[in-house]
């Protein structure tokens, strides 16, 4: 069976069918062991690990030092670790505990290429650094690490049966690391998965995402002297540009919620040499996987037509593909309650001054700094980004949140996001996420009614005949896609 025609339709049905989540039982307080206090006590580790990951800024599938750092911290806390899972050298699973339910926390670690910035509030690039944590995955990894260790300590001190797992998940940015892990069944025995993401606001809204697929389209031509023998050449760059022209025309005829974007990654080296190779890297997004497929078919036709019209050849390699997030409102409403219990971000006077200086660079996009201290209203909405957490959410009930790690008004994938991700403002946001996730995990370990309700909603939303389908097919992980 195919996925439901729209993720929002599935989650809306679930909301009508199951209503509000069971009320929190506040079991952590009853046990006498407070997971929030455990996270607070570990603030120095959160900041240290986040800063180290920020300094490393390693790209997808190349996160060797980053994964070693996370695994080393977990090993020192007594977690059993399996590394190199799903044929990905930097992927790992760390587990502590016995019996009971299995609660997973996801941890990302990869940076973005082509952007870097110091932790200053003004534009300040770092010489010779060719990547940066513009999506805050250094905070993601550090915050999730802190949460997992706090939950481990809570399980140990209370004697509660259960297993806490941290999944080290590489290459979220265009590499779909979690998809390969999902495809191999790494989440099949997980009761609930928890994730979070850095942002410029605090929210546990039931937000779904766009399905997407990417590929590198490679044109092969014939080189020649561009002035002395132009008739002998067949420009691979002409092929790429012709494809781009047709793709840009296609934008007019795409559904409103769809997205398509590209970069030319290779277009030749000298104007007087007809390039015999060119490469263009495309992303296609749509709320529904079938919508991605429909647009993708037309994009492939554009590539073939461009090659025919320019006398070149073309082939392509699918790099990644993600299914949309399957929202679970039973869990999302509980996560919203946990986030509200820990509250928003409070800036120190020094942080406020830094934030005001950075805010000046945001122009009309700037939002009141007070929003960092607020929790956004709970709602169900469509997010226009894409994430490989989506595939996890079709394997097991999944819930997430976002915290204000960046100055309000900051866009992801910007130098301002890099700066805040290496600043104490970002570290505070990671701590808030760790507190909410630890509370959520404790609730799940001690509230079987919540777990059962979440599973019931999950099964209903997927449908009886559901079969998992990956949007990247049966390809192996593209371990060299960032090289």
Automatic annotation (TrEMBL):
Transmembrane segments: none annotated. Residues 1-24 form the signal peptide. The keyword Hydrolase applies. Keywords: Hydrolase, Signal. InterPro entries: Amidohydrolase (IPR017439), Aminobenzoyl-glu_utiliz_pB (IPR017145), Peptidase_M20 (IPR002933), Peptidase_M20/M20A_hydrolases (IPR052030), Peptidase_M20_dimer (IPR011650). It holds the Pfam family Peptidase_M20. Residues 214-304 form the Peptidase M20 dimerisation domain. This is Amidohydrolase. It comes from Erythrobacter ani. The lineage of its organism: Bacteria, Pseudomonadati, Pseudomonadota, Alphaproteobacteria, Sphingomonadales.
């Amino acid at each position: 069976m195919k996925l439901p025609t729209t993720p929002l339709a599935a989650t809306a049905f679930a909301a009508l069918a199951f209503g509000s989540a069971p009320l929190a039982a506040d079991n952590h307080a009853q046990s006498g062991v407070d997971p929030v206090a455990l996270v607070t006590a570990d603030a120095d580790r959160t900041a240290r690990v986040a800063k180290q990951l920020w300094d490393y800024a390693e790209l997808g599938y190349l996160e060797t030092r980053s994964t070693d750092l996370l695994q080393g911290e977990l090993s020192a806390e007594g977690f059993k670790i399996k590394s190199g899972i799903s044929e990905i050298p930097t992927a790992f699973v760390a587990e502590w505990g016995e019996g009971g339910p299995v609660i997973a926390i996801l941890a990302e670690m990869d940076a973005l290429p082509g952007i870097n910035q110091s932790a200053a509030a003004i534009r300040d690039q770092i010489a010779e650094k060719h990547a940066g944590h513009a999506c805050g995955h250094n905070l993601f990894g550090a915050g999730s690490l802190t949460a997992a260790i706090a939950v481990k300590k809570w399980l140990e001190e209370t004697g509660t049966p259960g297993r806490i797992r941290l999944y080290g998940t590489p290459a979220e940015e265009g590499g779909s690391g979690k998809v390969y892990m999902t495809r191999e069944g790494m989440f099949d025995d997980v009761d609930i998965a928890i994730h979070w993401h850095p942002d410029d606001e605090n929210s546990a809204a039931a937000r779904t995402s766009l399905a997407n697929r990417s590929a590198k389209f490679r044109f092969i031509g014939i080189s020649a002297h561009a002035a002395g023998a132009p008739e002998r050449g067949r420009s691979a760059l002409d092929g790429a540009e012709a494809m781009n022209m047709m793709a840009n025309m296609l934008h007019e005829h795409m559904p409103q919620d769809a997205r398509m974007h590209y970069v030319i990654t290779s277009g030749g080296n000298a104007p007087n040499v007809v390039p015999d190779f060119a490469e263009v890297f495309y992303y296609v997004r749509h709320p529904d996987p079938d919508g991605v497929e429909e647009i993708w078919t037309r994009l492939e036709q554009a590539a073939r037509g461009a090659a025919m019209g320019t006398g070149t050849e073309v082939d392509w390699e699918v790099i990644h593909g993600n299914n949309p997030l399957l929202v679970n409102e039973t869990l999302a409403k509980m996560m919203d309650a946990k986030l509200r219990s820990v509250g928003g971000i409070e800036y120190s006077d020094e942080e406020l001054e830094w934030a005001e200086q950075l805010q000046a660079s945001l122009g009309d996009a700037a939002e009141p700094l007070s929003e960092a201290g607020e929790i956004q209203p709970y709602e169900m909405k469509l997010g226009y980004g894409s994430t490989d957490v989506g595939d996890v959410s079709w394997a097991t009930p999944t819930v997430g949140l976002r915290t204000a790690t960046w100055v309000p008004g900051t866009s992801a994938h910007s130098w301002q996001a890099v700066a805040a991700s290496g600043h104490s403002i970002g570290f505070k946001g990671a701590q808030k996420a760790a507190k909410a996730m630890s509370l959520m995990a404790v609730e799940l370990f001690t509230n079987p009614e919540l777990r059962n309700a979440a599973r019931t909603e999950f099964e209903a939303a997927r449908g009886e005949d559901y079969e998992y389908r990956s949007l990247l097919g049966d390809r192996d992980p593209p371990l060299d896609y960032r090289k």
